[in-house]
Amino acid sequence: MEGRWKLVIIHNLFGRDGGKPPVMRFSELERAIPTVSQKMLIQQLRCLERDGIVQRTIHPQVPPKVEYQLTCLGEALRPTLRALLDWANIRKQQSSD
Length: 97
Description:
Elements lengths: L5 H9 L9 E2 H7 L5 H13 L3 E6 L5 E6 L1 H4 L2 H19 L1
Antiparallel strand pairs: 1-3, 2-3
Protein name: DNA-binding HxlR family transcriptional regulator
Keywords: DNA-binding, Transcription, Transcription regulation
GO molecular function, one term: DNA binding
């Protein structure tokens, strides 16, 4: 899980409503994380796919449609990431006091 962007990518793939994790196209991820370069996003997604956290689906059409979603292993990271975000919020509040 090293790297600046992996947790950000995973966070975006968790979705907003806490329901079923979304399926996102590459362009949607690019828009959701505007500060990451296309090259870095591709590299990080490939690493997450290799590690079994993200599933990549290529639909055979022109232009190719590529979608990403969390695997069961990736979804299992939800409680851990939530705990890290809660901790970061506590730390932020303490440093502003």
